[in-house]
Amino acid sequence: MVQRSRPYGRDVAPVVALCKDPVRGTREIRLEAGAQGVLLTVCGDYTTRRSADGRWPVDNVTRYFDVAVHQVRAGDAGSGAPNSCTASRVPRVLETDDLSVLTGWAQAVAEAVTYAPERADALLADAGAGAPWRSAFQIAEPSRQLSEAVSFIGQAIRAVTPPGGVPMFDEVVDSCGEDRPDAPGLETLARRVMRSTLDQLRSRHMTEERPRAERQSR
What is this structure's pTM? Predict the structure, then answer.
């Protein structure tokens, strides 16, 4: 398709896309000779959202920039594709819908640990099965796997919560970062989801604190 694309008055060019970011500007992505595709690796980072209606700038949006361009070339015939059709699939630890719900609850728990740690335990109870709010709003009960995943997050938090105290952010990060070799796959997944949300929250705070510290130093 690239070779047959001949715009009127222009030479043939193996350009398949344009990539634009605020750091490197706009650049062409070319398909090299013998390649059938291009794999573009991108990275995201928090940046400042600016508005024309007078609102204060806020560092709550994401900017994306490319970090690598890899030319994709077809492999030789008989490189193993037939085997992939007969290979048995590994059962999913958690269904996609449940994983989305778990990620949402993990984000809420991470926010609670950061801003209202005394509410973390009550929030975990609301995330589990049998919470009164579900019947009040006619929301279906979570699946058994989802309930177990939430309980694993609760165990990781309660393991570092002192009696009569509240969980601390750094201790919860360390607790969720410990993958036990003999742990079931669902527990490992739940801890990693929680750890990911905590890491994102910490990264966001660091990004927000940097401009504030710079303003105070001026």
Answer: 0.56
